[in-house]
Predict the structure of tRNA (guanine(9)-N(1))-methyltransferase.
Amino acid sequence: LFSLSCIFQMDTTQESYLDLFPLDAIVYLTPDSENVLEDIDPNKVYVLGGLVDESIHKKLTLQRAQGQSLQTARLPIREYMVKAVNSRNYHSETLAINQVFDVLSTYYETQSWPAALKAGVSSGKGYVLPDAVK
Protein backbone atom coordinates (compact mmCIF):
# COMPACT_ATOMS: atom_id res chain seq x y z
CA LEU A 1 0.00 0.00 0.00
CA PHE A 2 1.22 3.48 -0.80
CA SER A 3 -0.23 6.47 0.94
CA LEU A 4 1.27 9.86 0.14
CA SER A 5 0.42 11.29 3.52
CA CYS A 6 3.13 9.08 4.98
CA ILE A 7 5.55 8.84 2.08
CA PHE A 8 8.52 8.04 4.32
CA GLN A 9 6.67 6.01 6.89
CA MET A 10 5.50 2.46 6.45
CA ASP A 11 3.38 0.42 8.77
CA THR A 12 2.94 -3.31 8.48
CA THR A 13 -0.10 -5.21 9.53
CA GLN A 14 -1.67 -8.60 9.10
CA GLU A 15 -4.96 -6.90 8.20
CA SER A 16 -6.16 -6.67 4.63
CA TYR A 17 -6.28 -3.32 2.88
CA LEU A 18 -9.93 -4.14 2.25
CA ASP A 19 -10.54 -3.98 6.01
CA LEU A 20 -8.43 -0.86 6.58
CA PHE A 21 -9.71 1.54 3.91
CA PRO A 22 -13.01 2.30 2.20
CA LEU A 23 -13.26 0.57 -1.16
CA ASP A 24 -13.69 3.87 -3.00
CA ALA A 25 -10.37 5.12 -1.58
CA ILE A 26 -8.34 2.18 -2.93
CA VAL A 27 -6.71 2.24 -6.36
CA TYR A 28 -5.10 -1.01 -7.43
CA LEU A 29 -2.20 -0.34 -9.78
CA THR A 30 -1.93 -2.91 -12.52
CA PRO A 31 -0.31 -2.66 -15.97
CA ASP A 32 -3.43 -4.26 -17.46
CA SER A 33 -5.84 -1.49 -16.44
CA GLU A 34 -7.54 0.59 -19.14
CA ASN A 35 -7.44 3.59 -16.77
CA VAL A 36 -4.36 5.79 -16.93
CA LEU A 37 -3.10 7.27 -13.68
CA GLU A 38 -3.10 10.96 -14.57
CA ASP A 39 -2.43 12.39 -11.13
CA ILE A 40 -1.88 11.16 -7.59
CA ASP A 41 -4.70 11.86 -5.19
CA PRO A 42 -3.43 12.18 -1.60
CA ASN A 43 -6.83 10.96 -0.39
CA LYS A 44 -6.41 7.63 -2.16
CA VAL A 45 -4.50 4.52 -1.15
CA TYR A 46 -2.54 2.90 -3.95
CA VAL A 47 -1.94 -0.84 -3.96
CA LEU A 48 1.32 -1.71 -5.68
CA GLY A 49 3.02 -4.98 -6.13
CA GLY A 50 0.06 -7.03 -5.06
CA LEU A 51 1.24 -9.73 -7.41
CA VAL A 52 3.78 -9.98 -10.18
CA ASP A 53 1.98 -11.41 -13.20
CA GLU A 54 4.19 -10.50 -16.14
CA SER A 55 4.50 -13.90 -17.74
CA ILE A 56 2.83 -16.67 -15.78
CA HIS A 57 -0.63 -15.31 -14.97
CA LYS A 58 -1.48 -12.48 -17.35
CA LYS A 59 -4.08 -10.02 -16.04
CA LEU A 60 -4.24 -11.68 -12.63
CA THR A 61 -3.88 -8.38 -10.75
CA LEU A 62 -6.58 -6.77 -12.88
CA GLN A 63 -8.93 -9.69 -12.27
CA ARG A 64 -8.18 -9.60 -8.54
CA ALA A 65 -8.94 -5.88 -8.31
CA GLN A 66 -12.14 -6.26 -10.35
CA GLY A 67 -13.20 -9.16 -8.14
CA GLN A 68 -12.79 -6.88 -5.12
CA SER A 69 -14.71 -4.03 -6.82
CA LEU A 70 -11.67 -1.76 -6.69
CA GLN A 71 -10.66 1.09 -8.98
CA THR A 72 -7.66 0.25 -11.13
CA ALA A 73 -5.08 2.33 -12.90
CA ARG A 74 -1.82 1.90 -14.76
CA LEU A 75 1.19 4.14 -14.94
CA PRO A 76 1.19 6.38 -18.04
CA ILE A 77 4.14 4.60 -19.68
CA ARG A 78 2.53 4.43 -23.16
CA GLU A 79 1.51 8.07 -22.96
CA TYR A 80 4.97 9.46 -22.17
CA MET A 81 7.44 6.85 -23.41
CA VAL A 82 8.16 5.13 -26.69
CA LYS A 83 9.26 1.61 -27.47
CA ALA A 84 13.01 1.44 -27.86
CA VAL A 85 14.52 -0.53 -30.69
CA ASN A 86 16.22 -3.53 -29.14
CA SER A 87 17.54 -6.85 -30.34
CA ARG A 88 15.13 -8.88 -28.23
CA ASN A 89 12.03 -6.89 -29.30
CA TYR A 90 11.14 -6.85 -25.60
CA HIS A 91 8.75 -4.25 -24.17
CA SER A 92 7.11 -4.56 -20.77
CA GLU A 93 5.03 -2.22 -18.63
CA THR A 94 5.28 -4.55 -15.65
CA LEU A 95 7.57 -3.03 -13.04
CA ALA A 96 9.02 -4.24 -9.76
CA ILE A 97 7.59 -2.77 -6.56
CA ASN A 98 10.61 -0.53 -6.01
CA GLN A 99 10.34 0.83 -9.57
CA VAL A 100 6.64 1.69 -9.11
CA PHE A 101 7.46 3.34 -5.78
CA ASP A 102 10.25 5.35 -7.45
CA VAL A 103 7.87 6.50 -10.19
CA LEU A 104 5.13 7.52 -7.74
CA SER A 105 7.42 9.27 -5.27
CA THR A 106 9.26 11.14 -8.05
CA TYR A 107 5.97 12.21 -9.61
CA TYR A 108 4.71 13.39 -6.22
CA GLU A 109 7.85 15.52 -5.78
CA THR A 110 8.15 16.87 -9.35
CA GLN A 111 4.60 16.71 -10.76
CA SER A 112 6.30 15.52 -13.97
CA TRP A 113 5.48 12.14 -15.47
CA PRO A 114 8.54 12.19 -17.79
CA ALA A 115 10.85 12.79 -14.80
CA ALA A 116 9.04 10.14 -12.76
CA LEU A 117 9.11 7.53 -15.50
CA LYS A 118 12.77 8.23 -16.20
CA ALA A 119 13.47 7.61 -12.51
CA GLY A 120 11.61 4.32 -12.30
CA VAL A 121 11.42 2.62 -15.70
CA SER A 122 14.74 1.02 -16.53
CA SER A 123 15.87 0.82 -20.16
CA GLY A 124 15.71 -2.96 -19.82
CA LYS A 125 11.92 -2.70 -19.97
CA GLY A 126 12.23 -1.56 -23.59
CA TYR A 127 10.72 1.90 -23.11
CA VAL A 128 12.50 5.26 -23.22
CA LEU A 129 11.49 8.89 -23.20
CA PRO A 130 11.12 10.28 -26.73
CA ASP A 131 14.12 12.61 -26.34
CA ALA A 132 16.34 9.59 -25.54
CA VAL A 133 15.68 8.15 -29.02
CA LYS A 134 17.31 11.03 -30.85
